[in-house]
Every structure is written in C-alpha cells, then in structure tokens.
Amino acid sequence: MNDMTPTREQREAKLEGMGCKRKRVEDIRFTQGKGNYVDDVKLPGMLHGDFVRSPHAHARVKKIDDTEALKVPGVLAVITAETLKTVNLAWMPTLAGDVQMVLADGKVLFQNQEVAFVVATDRYAADDGINKVVVEYEPLPPLIDPFKAMAPDAPVLREDLAGKTTGAHGPRKHHNHIFEWTVGDKDLTDAAFRKAEVTIKEMISYHRTHPSPLETCQCVCSFDKIKGELTIWGTFQAPHVIRTVVSLIAKLPEQKIHVISPDIGGGFGNKVGAYPGYICAAVASIVTGKPVKWVEDRIENLTATSFARDYHMTTEIASTKEGKVTGLRVHVLADHGAFDACADPSKWPAGFFNIVTGSYDFPTAHLSVDGIYTNKAPGGVAYRCSFRVTEAAYCIERAMDILAQKLGMDPAELRLKNFIKPEQFPYHSALGWEYDSGDYATAMRKAMETVKYAELRKEQAALREAFKRGETREIMGVGVSFFTEIVGAGPSKNCDILGIAMFDSCEIRLHPTGAGIARMGTKSQGQGHETTWAQIIATEIGIPADNIMVEEGNTDTAPYGLGTYGSRSTPVAGAAIAMAARKIKAKAQMIAAYKLEVHEDDLEWDIDGFRVKGLPEKTMSMKDICWAAYNSVPPGMEPGLEAVSYYDPPNMTYPFGAYICVMNIDVDTGVYKVRRFYALDDCGTRINPMIIEGQVHGGLTEAFAIAMGQEIRYDADGNVVTGSFMDFFMPTAVETPHWETDFTVTPSPHHPIGAKGVGESPNVGGVPAFSNAVNDAFSFLGSTHIQMPHDYWRNWKAAKDLGAVA
Amino acid sequence: MIPGPFSYHRPATVADAVKLLSNLGDEARPLAGGHSLVPMMKLRLATPEHLVDLHGIAGLKGIRRDGNTIVIGAMATQHELLASDEIGRSLPILDETALLIADPQVRYRGTIGGNLANGDPGNDMPALMMTLGASYRLEGTSGAREVAASEFYQGAYFTALEPGELLTSVAIPVPAAGHGYAYEKLKRKVGDYATAAAAVVLTMAGGKVATCKIGLTNLSETPLLAEDAAKAVIGTSLDPATLKKAAAAAEAIMSPAADARGPVEYRKHVGGIMVMRALQRAAGRAS
C-alpha cells in the first residue's frame, strides 16, 4: 500500500454520508438570490388574478356588480360563483371530507373570504378592478365564540348542510357540529377517576395561529388548448396529491396535468391544502387560454389560507397521592372555522391527537373531540407538527405540571415517575398507538444535569422569597417539557389521503461515471432534502453525496409521493431511499462478483465498494461498478443501474425530547426574558447534525413565537385583529432567544436506517416548555393555569389578577 | 397590497415643491422616506393622485449648528442623525430615540421631516421634539413660518400644516451642558410602534431636579407634554413617592386606544412606568 492510497477515514469522509455535517447544497442558490420560486415564473402573455374579498364575517351576498370593474383598462374578466357553476366548480372537496366554497355562493362565512376573481393583464389592473367590483351584502349575526357554536339558538352557518345529520366522520349533533371523534375505554377511565386519590381538571386552550411561511401561497396555471394539457406551477408541499385532486374535480385526465413545485419559501403546513386561488387561476386559464398567475399577499395569507390549532382541551388526570397517574380524560372543542379544511389523513378528523397520553404510562384514557363551525377562516393544518400532535403535547405537558403543582411535587420528578420505561417498548398506549422505541428517563436526566436543574429550583425559591419581601419585581419560571411525537404518516393500514395510501417513493438512477440522480415523492420547502437525501445514498451505496443530484417537485418525472409535512419525509421517503439504494446495491454486487470472478456471497461491502472476503486487496469500487453496468454486465442481466422503491412504513416513528426553559418576568410590564433554553432531541439516527440543529433552531423560534404572542385573533364581529406582521408576532433575531441543542440517539427499530424525523419536534416540545415556564413563574402567586399566548400585556394582567401589581 | 395609479413629480427646489403641492391640491402628497405613506398606498388606505418626491431638493438635507440651535433639514434620514457627530455631542437623546425606530433598513430611508410631519401618534420623534422645545419651519407659497412642536399636533394625522405647506426643517435648542436624558420605549418587537414611550430631559442641581420636561409617545391621539408630571419632580431627588406621583400625573393625561399591544389600562400603566424609568435613567446621566 503506497502513501497515496486513501485511508478508510478519507474514503468515508469523501462520501459525506450519514452523520456528516455536510453544508447545504441548495444554499448556494438561496443565499445568492438565485432560487426559482413560483413568482419567478413569467410566461408570455401571462395574466394576473386577484380576489375581491368579504369585509364581513357572516353575510348574505345579494348582488355582485362587475360593470365598472370590466371598464378598467386591462381587466378581462370577473369570475364569480355563478361563473364557476357552469363548470361545476363553485364548491370544492376538502381533504377532511367537507366541501368548501371556491367563491362566495349566496353568502360569506368569514372575513376575507374569496368573493370574486378579477383577471387582468397585470397585477395593478387586477387590483384596480377589485376596487370597482360592487358587492351588496346583508350582514348576518356572526358566530365567533366556539363555546357558543352549539347553543340551540346559534346562527346557522352552513345552509348547504341543512338536513344532513351525518358528516364525513359520523353523526352531527347540531347544525354547527362537524363531527365527534372518540377514542379509548370510557368505562375503565371513568372508573379510574372514581377511584382516584387525586384529580385535576383544567380547560387548556391552544389558540388559533398561522404557519405564515415567508413565501405566501401562489400558483401559475397554464392551459394548452391544443394539447388539452394543464400545467400548474405552485407552492405545493404535496404536488402529486394536487395533481390527483385537480384531475378528480376538474375532470381532466391525470396524464394531461403537469404539477410543478419549484423552490418553496417555507410551508409549515400552510401549503398542503387546495385553495380557491388555485381553482380560480386554473379556470381562468382554461377560459382565456392564457397563463394566469395568482399570488397571495401577506394579509390574505394570514387571514384566508389555512390557520393552525384553535383547540380547547378540557383535561383531567387521575393519580395516586404519590403521583402515579391512573387515568386521563380529555374533551376537545375543535374550532374549524367555516369549512373543515384540515389537512389530516382522511380517517383522522382530529389528526393523531390520541397521542395525548404523551410519554407517560397511563393505564387507561378516554378522548372525545367535537369539531364545530364558526365564522372564521377554514384550515386546521399541522403547523410544523404532525397532525394535531403539538396540541396533544401541549395538553398533556401543561396538565402534568398542573398535577405536579397539586401534588406539591417537582414537575420533572413527576415526569420521571410516570415515563414509559425502556423495557416497555414497543409500547401500546391506552389510546391505540404502538410506540416504537424510547429511553425517556436518560434524556430527561441528561437535560436536568446539563442545566443544573436543582440549582435553578434553589435560585427560584430564593427569588420568590425576595419578591415576597418586596426586594424585586421579577419572578422566575423553569419550564419543563418532555414530548413524544408521532410522525411518518403513514402505514397504509391506517393512513390515506382521499384514498391514496400514505407511502412515499424514491427512484435512483446511476450514471456510467459514478454519479446519479434521485427523484423523490417528497418536496423540500427549506428542509435541505437535496443535501440529506444524497447523504443517505452516499452511505448506502458508496457514491459521494456530491455526485448525486436530488430532484423533487415535478409530477412528470418524480415517482408518486404524498409530499412533505408532518415530519414524514425522513421516516417514509428516507426509508424509500434506503430501500431503492439497497436494490441497486444488490445488482451492483452481482456485477462486481462477475467482474471479480467470484461468487456474490464471497463479497463484502466496504465503504464505497465491494471486496472479496479474506482478500482485501481484491476490490471493485461503486464508481467502477457504475461503468461496468453500462458495458459489461453478467450474461442475461439487463444493463443499467437504477431502482425505484415505494415504501409503505410498518409503523409511525416516535421521536422525543426533553426541553427546559428558564425565564424571568417583570411583573410591572409583563416583559419576559428567556434566560436559557435547552433542547435535547432524540430523532433516532442522525443524518446531518448541522441540518438537525438548524431545524431545531427554526422550530424553537416558531414555538417561541406561538407561546409568547403569535395568534390569529378575531373581535366579536369577526374582524381579524392580527392580520399583518405589525400585530401577528413574527420574531426577529433580536427577540429570539439563544438556543442550546443536545441529543441522545435511540434508533427506530423498524426504519431501514433507524431515523425518526426531527423538523417538527422543536415546535411540538417548545410550546409547552415556554408556557410551562410562564405558568411556573406565576404558580407561587396562586395560579394553576394561564392561557397562551403569553405576551407582555397578558403577563401583566396575570400578575394583576393574582394581586402582584396594584 | 398593490397601490392605485398616481403621477410622480420630482421638484428641485422647495419653491417648486410647494407650488406643485398648492396647485395639485388635496390629491397631492409629499413623499419623503415613504415608510408611512407607501404602505398606506399599498393597502389603498391612501390613494393620492400625485406624489411630490422631495429627494431632488438639496436644500432639505443637512444637519448644522447655528449658535445654540441645531437645525436639521427635513430630508435628513434617521441614519444621518445617528451618523452625525454634532447630534451625538449636543443631542444624544436623538441618537437614543433614532436607534429605537424600526430597523437599519428603515432608518436609511426614513426621514426626520416625514416622522414629524405625518402626525402619526406612533412616531417617536414628535414627543421628543416637544420635550426639547423644538420648532418647525413650514414653507408654503405665501412664505415661511415657525411653529412650536408643542403647537403643531392637533389630532391623529392632523397637524398645523396648511394645504400646500411643507415642513422644511426643525430647529432644536441645544440642552444645557450636563443635562440628563432618556427615551424609554416599550415595544413588542423590533419595528413596532411603542406600546408606551416617555422622553425625559432634565437638569440636576445639588442632587435635586432643577428643570424637567417629559414627553409621551403613542399614549394619545397626539404626542403629549406631561407638564404636571414634570412639575411634580422639580426640587425632588426622585424618591419613590415622587416617581409614583409623576407617573400618576402622566397617566392622568394619557388616553391610548386599546389595540393588540394591550388594553387601555395596561398601556396607561406601562406609560407611567416608562416615565419613572426615564426619569431615573435621565437623572443618572445628569451632572
């Protein structure tokens, strides 16, 4: 062996495979302003569409007069529900089994609802046209408070559902009721509560907020009348699903629909569903024969496209005096707005909210969810979380703190006492899930040791005494959160969207020179797929990640996939990559055996190629195998080196983590300071630690925003009062706390590479950590629960209500 | 978020600008930094038919000292205030306040004249100018006049400017050597208007407050001078009881609106706290 022969370490390093902090290859274009987003798509003769929107939350539409609008230079058409009825598109199906108005049909049901679509030669003319459309409304009483939705005399919102006593998810109890969903053993749970030594009950609300990606929702639709083909460039997190939905509702053959998701500027769940803008742009293009662009502005995005959360969770825990939990009972009032447009797997009207038993060994539990309509925007999407998992995590993590307070126990100690133990995995939860793996106590203890938890509690006790003596106006909270996520939707046995199983896919094609392309059913919106997918391939088949191009988002070239949301990409598509790579590796082994003139079984894998067992100098690299695949394959074998895998996961994955937040609050102003935030994540096998860290930073920043002020709030008339970034809290680098990240590794036993997914964990675990810190700070003044968001004035009000401020 | 149609004018002199504004009437608006006007136009809450851009007028730029007065041209940007040695020496409270306005990008573009003339109760500089006893030079087709900052603000977006008039400069008397100053602003995040803010300029003599002015931002339809609050601290060493008295006197003249920053009660309460904190910090700086 001469000095020029690379060492094993050098060969490993050259691959930049799994575990490598590989720099994000997509950032080369993103950081130079060279990304290609939907709004960069400019086609010859392209028209622009924009919406006339309702100023009212609830009103009858008496008349739409477009006479003056059509006189505006450049305005070509004004599309209304009446126009859409001619092509049977005035209403569209939602992913949740409901129907939704594309344009106001007889009435409007939320402020900023789409009423008419003005098509013009440029964006300015379209807006000029909007201002000339005269709509006559007859205001109706709005229904804003979800707790009044099912009152006998509550206004009837959905006249289209009159007489329908059954919805997509069973019986409806009231004209504003959508569904009731129950899980668990009610009798056993009720019995546990009857026998309980200690119980707590609290109505814990998770307020309405919004994913608010930097890039809003948008599309360009271009219909080719000659070919009868429709091409749609759009901000789609799930382009294949959009293609199928368009085919089904527009009655166009699916092969004649081309859906392209170019670079996407963040999604966070906002870009999963189908919106009126897509339908109207498509119809406008079909009618005019010209490309039509629709680009939402920020106010439209915040007020009309999918919101998140809005769950009101009455939560009860039964426990022994020693703090061993014996039962959990939760009722959720779920405010869906005017239409049920949740983007959950079809059979799950409340998503995976039944993960609400969290990380704890509850012997029994019962959950019921009532979905209701109000005069608010539709949605209920998974804002950087798996379906309704952040609501569930917030619910149980807040409730555990409330129980600890009642028992006079430390909240971390209560958690340690009730964790599911490592030897209990695979663990079957009382509400029906099979947790794949976990070592919760180790993670919790590592977190507590790192932040010197016991010392923090001592400091807090001293500060509380000083506060009582009037020596300080600051209070201190330590927020503990231990979350279990459920991601990777999902197994075909229980997950589908509109009947399509929630598998995902990968096609790998290797080129003669030892390079290749991987095409995916997923779609990155900033997650760094182009970087990490190539790393999995590099480790699996020994081709350097730099030699693998990853392509996503074009439904003509990518294999069918269900898209990217709910932290499903790594658990599902990441597995598909490994499985496709392994098919290639199996063929490569046959080629290598043929070329090395040995039996396949005499070969073993070694970093970037095969070697003959016992003869380490007799090797064939993958690079050489790629070449051979195109000129000298074994007799009878087809040339080429490619494979495709559609991966149907056997189970979900269950990432978890321990987060601790230390916060001080000035009671006189309500101003808080996050002194420390420590986040330990266990996402199983770690593909790119740098990207994981970035994901955790981003998710924690969103969690911080949500817990501390970010909300979509309506006044009593149904006006959105937080409809722009002036009032909708979007923290900048100045407000954002410093993040400390850490990890343990508990691989998923059923995933080909043991990975679990991480992108959404920090949002799921972060919100309860912040809220528990605030609640912990105030608890010694006598409060048990203060609702989010914890912005300055509400903190002050809490202090005032507790008598701490004159 | 798309503005309506408008015509664009770029005069080279103040005389041309006021002539244009006068001739074009109510449908014309002067354009300075544009950080208030342009967003309003994008929402079509403002739909001027004519924009008279003041960036071509050399005479509106510059910061100079004229005896014991600092004169700032209306088109001086917030960034230029921060970059000026003269301001740093003579009026450090301007630097402190400018740094709390929005973010660097906005400060490169936003002007003092626009901030003062727009009459937006959320703007920070108007209360500061009242506190400093500044006066504004207003020029119209019929000539120029001086109006005290304390006389200028009449209501939200209503000022002493007559149709066709332009605010061309502000004159600020240099505060006494050794004065103490502070601008305390509570805001939700970078770029936000104040939930409540207080400006204090004072002098101390023998450990007691000799002179004091207190201004309040975003706590009423107009910026406010808290005269009773200022009187309450004269001759005191700012003991806790006096601070509370000053805060109460200031709160008595506040009438903020309830908004997403908080209910009225909260905004008045923190308004009082800003006054107390500004007084204490200003006194600490006085010599």
Characteristic key phrases:
heterodimer; A: 806 residues; alpha+beta; Aldehyde Oxidoreductase, domain 4; Aldehyde Oxidoreductase, domain 3; seven-stranded mixed beta sheet; six-stranded mixed beta sheet; 35 strands; B: 287 residues; Uridine Diphospho-n-acetylenolpyruvylglucosamine Reductase, domain 2; Uridine Diphospho-n-acetylenolpyruvylglucosamine Reductase, domain 3; Enolase-like, domain 1; 3 domains; 12 helices; molybdenum ion binding (chain A); AldOxase/xan_DH_Mopterin-bd_sf (chain A); AldOxase/xan_DH_MoCoBD1 (chain A)
Describe this structure in words.
Chain B: This is Carbon monoxide dehydrogenase. Chain B: One of its GO terms (molecular function) is FAD binding. Chain B: It comes from Bradyrhizobium lablabi. The complex is a heterodimer of chains A (806) and B (287). Chain A is an alpha+beta fold. The longest helix of chain A is centred in the C-terminal third of the chain and has 28 residues, at 569-596. The termini of chain A are far apart. Chain B has helices at 14-24, 37-42, 78-83, 85-90, 92-98, 104-109, 112-117, 125-132, 149-152, 227-233, 240-253, 264-285; strands at 7-9, 28-31, 50-53, 63-66, 69-73, 135-140, 143-148, 153-155, 158-159, 166-173, 180-186, 196-205, 208-217, 224-225. In chain B, the strands form 4 sheets. A 5-stranded antiparallel β-sheet of chain B has the order 4-5-10-6-7. Chain B has a 4-stranded antiparallel β-sheet with strand order 11-12-13-14, with helices on both faces. Chain B is built from 12 helices and 14 strands. In chain B, 36% of the residues lie in helices and 26% in strands. In chain B, helix 10 packs antiparallel against helix 11 and helix 11 crosses helix 12. Chain B starts with 6 loop residues before the first strand and ends with a helix. Chain B has 287 residues and is of the alpha+beta class. Classes of the chains: A alpha+beta (806), B alpha+beta (287). The interface between A and B is medium-sized, with 32 and 23 residues.
